[in-house]
Write a structure and sequence with these properties.
mainly alpha; 278 residues
């Protein structure tokens, strides 16, 4: 069981590093899912190879070990879904979207309130019912499908435990984002009331500039996400950029001059410097 705990500890360390080093949410999601998949496969192989396993050890595994990588996997998949469906319009709509997501994650705790309280109070008296493979009772619930399909590596409640863990992570992350968004809104309100600047070049040019600023890590030493820069720039220049993630994919697909606007920017500044020196 010690080896199983080490697999989980290594995964958690990788995720901490991932959170501080990712340049985008989708990069974080893709890499995080890869780490989780590897950890779950290692756990499965290690666990199923144990010949003498006591009931207490089995309960411990399905209650405190397997739900961690499984929970992170749910977390990353849910995070991708959150970002793909995020409104690309006003901050007000984004805030409403985040609040609705938080409420939906909290609803899962209510749906499983008895079991949720059991975990929160760190009870152990019903562990053999919840976390022993041989004692599992199939509930009429979608979460039971994992136990029905893979009874060798699942119990009736280990997936629910993982999902509760994931939802806690998601709620914590979204609350932080909501707080940042409220602070950004205050700054945006100031900008829109004091600036009449209009972006008059193409939207794609501004998106190219945003990604360049993010890539060069010239804002907050790189500790900022694309959406934060985009939100600020949209308000500063009174423009709606739409789905800038998709636009960046189109920029990446350019065969010739992938940084067309930045190249023009550099040439224009060079010309200005030369003219000033004449």
């Amino acid at each position: 069981m010690k080896n199983c705990r080490k697999i989980v500890a290594d995964l958690e360390q990788k995720i901490v590093t991932l959170n501080s080093g990712s340049t985008s949410v989708f990069e974080e999601v893709e890499t995080g899912m890869y780490f989780c998949r590897k950890a779950i496969n290692k756990l499965r192989k290690r666990f199923l190879s144990i010949e003498l396993l006591s009931p207490d050890q089995e309960c411990c595994f399905f209650k405190t070990i397997k739900p961690i990588p499984a929970g992170y996997m749910i977390y990353f998949i849910s995070l991708a879904d959150f970002e793909l469906n995020r409104p690309q319009t006003s901050n007000r709509k984004v805030k409403k979207y985040i609040q609705e997501k938080i409420a939906s994650y909290q609803e899962y705790f209510v749906e499983h309130r008895t079991f949720y309280k059991y975990l929160e109070r760190r009870r152990t008296d019903r562990d053999s019912e919840y976390f022993l493979r041989s004692n599992g009772k199939v509930k009429f619930h979608l979460d039971a499908v994992h136990y029905c399909i893979d009874q060798n590596f699942s119990t009736s409640h280990d997936y629910i435990t993982a999902k509760i863990f994931a939802h806690k992570l998601l709620i914590s992350r979204l609350r932080k984002e909501l707080f940042k968004l409220k602070n950004t809104s205050r700054l945006n309100t100031f900008l829109t009331t004091t600036s009449s600047l209009q972006w008059t070049a193409n939207k794609v040019d501004l998106i190219e500039l945003i990604y360049a600023l993010h890539a060069v890590k010239s804002i907050n030493n790189g500790q900022v996400e694309i959406k934060d820069i985009a939100s600020l720039v949209q308000e500063a220049f009174n423009i709606e950029l739409g789905d800038y993630y998709r636009t960046f994919i189109e920029i990446r697909s350019r065969k010739i001059h992938p940084t067309k606007f930045l190249d023009n920017l550099k040439q224009s500044l060079t010309n200005r410097i030369l003219q000033a020196d004449e």
